[in-house]
From TrEMBL:
<keyword id="KW-0808">Transferase</keyword>
<dbReference type="GO" id="GO:0016757">
    <property type="term" value="F:glycosyltransferase activity"/>
</dbReference>
<protein>
    <submittedName>
        <fullName>Predicted amidophosphoribosyltransferases</fullName>
    </submittedName>
</protein>
<dbReference type="InterPro" id="IPR029057">
    <property type="entry name" value="PRTase-like"/>
</dbReference>
<comment type="similarity">
    <text>Belongs to the ComF/GntX family.</text>
</comment>
<dbReference type="InterPro" id="IPR051910">
    <property type="entry name" value="ComF/GntX_DNA_util-trans"/>
</dbReference>
<keyword id="KW-0328">Glycosyltransferase</keyword>
<dbReference type="InterPro" id="IPR000836">
    <property type="entry name" value="PRTase_dom"/>
</dbReference>
Length: 241
């Protein structure tokens, strides 16, 4: 298609499905520079704002790229629940960069490394048209590989029965934990693992994923998410000034 016709097609498409930045609503752009900027930040520790993570022993270090507020919240919500699949082109590379920056802090310099996505429920994946944690895990594995680790995605967890994500923290916390699948990859020796999810609020999902891996050769050494929300009784995020 010649450029003139392509331009006309884009304009007609925008009349049917308007394009706007999911963070600030600026029209005619997939995302603006200002709302893209937070996704270029290096990941920082966020477990102090996720009170459920204190239930783990030993503690699990968790990192996020940005606080779940304002334009960041709008962008993540648009990708997850507003059909903006094109935002994978923004958030996937952001996760890859974050994982590459995080690699030196994981304490692993050689050998295999597993990236384990927190399980998405089948109903959510069907509604969204994409398995978001799996996409993010793939991006994180690519970033770790770029940093010199032999990282592979290992989707070994499946959701437990009972309460679903989005049912409220109390129901989610009491529901059966995700389980390691019977047909999952089973290494013969301990392998460090990075848990990956889209966001962390109380930390319940990450805790349950880590507990589900207990007794398996996969040993969680940290968790990485796109964005983190401050816990209800915790202090402010520790982030760059």
């Amino acid at each position: 298609m010649d450029p003139r016709r392509a331009g006309i097609a884009r304009r007609l498409g925008r009349l049917v499905v308007p394009v706007e930045c999911p963070g600030c609503g600026e029209p005619d752009v997939r995302w603006c520079e200002a709302c893209e900027a937070p996704w270029w930040e290096a990941p920082l520790r966020c477990e102090s704002g996720a009170p459920r993570l204190s239930a783990l022993e030993p503690p699990l270090a968790a990192w996020s790229i940005a606080p779940l507020e304002g334009a960041v919240h709008g962008t993540v919500a648009a990708w997850k629940d507003a059909g903006r699949r094109d935002l994978a082109a923004l958030l996937g590379p952001a996760m890859g960069r974050a994982a590459a920056a995080l690699a030196p802090q994981l304490g692993v310099t050689a050998g295999a490394f597993a990236v384990v996505p927190c399980p998405a429920r089948a109903a959510h994946t069907r509604r969204r048209g994409v398995d978001i944690p799996l996409v993010l895990a793939g991006a994180a594995a690519a970033g770790l590989s770029d940093a010199g680790l032999r990282a592979l995605v290992r989707p070994v967890l499946a959701p437990g029965g009972g309460g679903a994500r989005g049912a409220g923290d109390r129901l989610r916390w009491r529901a059966p934990a995700p389980r390691a699948t019977r047909h999952a990859w089973r290494p013969s020796h301990a392998v460090p693992a990075l848990l990956v999810d889209d966001v962390v609020t109380t930390g319940a999902t990450l805790v349950r994923a880590a507990e589900a891996l207990a007794g398996t050769p996969l040993v969680p050494v940290g968790a990485l998410v796109l964005a983190s929300a401050q816990g209800p009784t915790q202090g402010a995020h520790v982030r760059r000034g």
